[in-house]
Amino acid sequence: MELRQLRTFEAVVREGSVTDAANRLGLAPSSVSQAVRALERTLDVELFVREPRGMRTTPAGERLLVWARRLLDQAEQARREVTDAGRERPVVRLGALESIAASVAPGILRRLAERRPELRVDVRSELDRSALLEAVAVGEVDAGLVLDTGDTLGDLGFPLPAGGELDFLDLDPVPLRLVAAPGHPRAGEVLGPADLRGERLLVNASSACSFALAARRLCGPEVERVSAGSVAVMRAWARQGVGVALLPEFAVADDLAAGALTALRLPTPTLRLRLTWASARAAHPPTRALLYAAGG
């Protein structure tokens, strides 16, 4: 059975004659008759009783009418859904650590909007890097933004999810600054890591924090750690002289400019904002669109 045959059949039933159905469909009466007879041959049943004043359905025709209307309704629904899907903006699901979602992600989103304005990006913020990378690996998000360093993913010292290979693209550098309260006794001196002995280093409560991992690599185990919670808390405590903190430049730039913090002259690492995705999803259209926009 063909949909056009079912439409013709349903029109004949509704109008009661071949001529009236032909007028409604904009077809020649002969075309309507041929479609009905082809349908009867396909089903090997008579669908109509032909009478001088019109046509009425046989029991088989009554049964087919129920199915014809159901199938035509489903075909129309399928057409609408497919057409609507073709008109929708493609959605890219982007995950980001909460520490960078507020300050760094907006710049990435602006870049995407400029390069691929047809994309709609849904951002999922995560507190835990392991949860974010797991979501990337299993396809819950198309890609994730993390902070890292080195030539391979995880060089900063964090574990990768088991199973499922991840690829990455470096987007922007994220410089770090070692900051302290104004008037710190070592302000203005050129320092090395050994000069930090005796200092109190403010770190995130989570040892897996990117800035805590970078501080461990920079300062070594000899420097006393003080758990201070979030980046905002570390910055506030550093302003009040509780200790020094290794923080991203974007988080302390305003305080440095205002004189509320001072930067100690110690060479600090630069982290990289990395876009990571599951290797198996590189050909997935939303993921491919995101990579094109981010790396173009």
Question: Would you write up a description of this structure?
Answer:
The protein has three domains: 85 residues, Arc Repressor Mutant, subunit A, CATH 1.10.10.10; 107 residues, D-Maltodextrin-Binding Protein, domain 2 (3-Layer(aba) Sandwich); 97 residues, D-Maltodextrin-Binding Protein, domain 2 (3-Layer(aba) Sandwich). It is rod-shaped, with a radius of gyration of 34 Å. The protein has 296 residues and is an alpha/beta fold. Helix 1 crosses helix 3. Strands 3, 4, 5, 6, 7, 8, 9, 10 and 11 form a nine-stranded mixed sheet that branches. Pfam families: HTH_1 (PF00126), LysR_substrate (PF03466). Belongs to the LysR transcriptional regulatory family. Keywords: DNA-binding, Transcription, Transcription regulation.
**Radius of gyration based on Cα positions:** 34 Å
Count of beta strands: 11
| Beta fraction | 15-25%
Query: SSE order, as H and E?
Result: HHHEEHEHHEHEEEHEHEHEEH
Protein name: LysR family transcriptional regulator
Organism: Actinacidiphila polyblastidii
Domain HTH lysR-type: 1-58
Keywords: DNA-binding, Transcription, Transcription regulation
Write the layout of secondary structure elements.
Blueprint: H1 3-15, H2 18-25, H3 29-43, E1 48-51, E2 54-57, H4 59-87, E3 91-97, H5 98-101, H6 105-115, E4 120-126, H7 129-138, E5 143-148, E6 166-180, E7 200-203, H8 210-219, E8 224-227, H9 231-239, E9 244-248, H10 249-258, E10 262-263, E11 270-278, H11 285-295
Helix pairs in contact: 1-2, 1-3, 1-4, 2-3
Pfam families: HTH_1, LysR_substrate
InterPro entries: LysR_HTH_N, LysR_subst-bd, WH-like_DNA-bd_sf, WH_DNA-bd_sf
Domain HTH lysR-type: 1-58
